[in-house]
Design the sequence.
């Protein structure tokens, strides 16, 4: 029998790519999503890529009675990968309670059900945002957790603390938090990818939409940082590499059945790229010009961050393998498919 894994937020960007990798590795997947920021099109995409359209239940994880029913309907779950959360930094500043309620209550409901229905393992989507601007680069998992810059970032910190405290308090539950750096790109088939609503906040969707002519020009936020070309540096990592790390984390949790612990790992490439390097690489691999203008810094942005990935490399046995160029090309192929560009 296949191991059954619950993927919350599985119709979303990273969730859908992870569902593909899980199915390809022989797991059975059930997705729960309230479609707040995604559509069921990704289920079709997953089905086309893998030949298996995963089971899907549409509801909100904050609805505890409905979640209880789900756990009764799907006995024998082996693990949960919890992606479902709000993730827009700016929106979280405007609507902090919406962020705290959604991101914290959904996690607490899941943890209570894990205990009640004997589901022992969880992989939690965390973020490098928990490090703020680290003093030393590359940043390791032992770096100090700095006060969050936004309610969104704070929900990631608090969720990690909830996991740590809860796992200490009960027997037989274990979790791995994966701290993503900047996940970008799309599946090489261009059948699934990122679907930002309205004007994108993140760099890569803005770049691809500008290249597609949907946006007039990309604003590069700041060229006066203390970096080689003055623009800010991030660790951009292919979403399929990120997805593969979840499969490794699940296999680690399933192997350590008797352990009760909480671990966390950085998921990055170990290499930083500046905004201008991203634009130049995009133009080189796609042959499409990106109209851009340098403007002032964006409030709340840090100057530079990239990951030390040694812990994930050694302990998870995982490494990012896809290049920035290949990844940007996949993002462009996805954008072209969305817009019907040949
Ligand atoms: C942001 C969030 C982070 C969250 C992540 C995923 C902040 C401060 N951080 O990361 O907590 O986990 O998104 O949603 O918002 N840029 C431009 N022009 C643009 C857009 C971005 O120059 O139009 C620059 C930014 O200034 C930054 C880099 O591109 O230097 C990456 O930005 P973005 O993709 O928004 O990611 P982060 O800000 O790193």
Sequence:
């Amino acid at each position: 029998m296949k191991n059954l894994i619950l993927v919350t937020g599985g119709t979303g960007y990273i969730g859908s790519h992870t569902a593909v990798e899980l199915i390809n590795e022989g797991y059975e997947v059930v997705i729960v999503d309230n479609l707040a920021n995604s559509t069921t099109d990704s289920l079709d995409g997953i089905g086309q890529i893998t030949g298996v359209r995963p089971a899907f239940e549409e509801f909100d994880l904050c609805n505890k009675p409905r979640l209880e029913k789900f756990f009764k309907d799907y006995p024998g779950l082996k693990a949960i990968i919890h992606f479902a959360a709000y993730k827009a930094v700016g929106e979280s500043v405007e609507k902090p309670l919406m962020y705290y309620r959604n991101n914290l209550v959904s996690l607490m409901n899941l943890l209570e059900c894990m205990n009640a229905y004997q589901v022992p393992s969880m992989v939690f989507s965390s973020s490098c945002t928990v490090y703020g601007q680290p003093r030393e680069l590359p940043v390791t998992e032992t770096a100090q957790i700095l006060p969050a810059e936004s309610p969104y970032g704070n929900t990631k910190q608090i969720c990690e603390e909830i996991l740590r405290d809860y796992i200490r308090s009960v027997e037989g539950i274990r979790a791995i938090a994966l701290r993503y750096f900047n996940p970008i790109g799309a599946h090489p088939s261009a059948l699934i990818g990122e679907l930002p609503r309205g004007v994108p906040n993140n760099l890569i969707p803005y770049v691809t939409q500008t290249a597609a002519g949907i946006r007039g020009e990309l604003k590069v936020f700041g060229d006066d940082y203390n970096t080689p070309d003055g623009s800010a540096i991030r660790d951009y990592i292919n979403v399929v590499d990120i997805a593969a790390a979840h499969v490794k984390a699940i296999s680690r949790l399933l192997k350590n059945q008797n352990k009760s612990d909480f671990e966390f790992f950085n998921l990055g490439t170990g290499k930083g790229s500046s905004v201008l390097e991203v634009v130049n690489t995009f133009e080189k691999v796609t042959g499409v010009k990106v109209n851009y203008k340098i403007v002032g810094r964006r409030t709340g942005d840090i100057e530079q961050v990239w990951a030390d990935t040694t812990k994930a490399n050694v302990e998870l046995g995982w490494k990012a393998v896809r290049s920035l160029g290949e990844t940007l090309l996949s993002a462009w192929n996805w954008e072209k498919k969305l817009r019907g560009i040949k």
Q: What stands out?
A: The chain has a mean pLDDT of 96. The pocket of uridine-diphosphate-N-acetylglucosamine is lined by residues 87, 89, 127, 129, 153, 182, 201-203, 206, 218-221, 232, 234, 275, 298, 300-301 (CB under 6 Å).
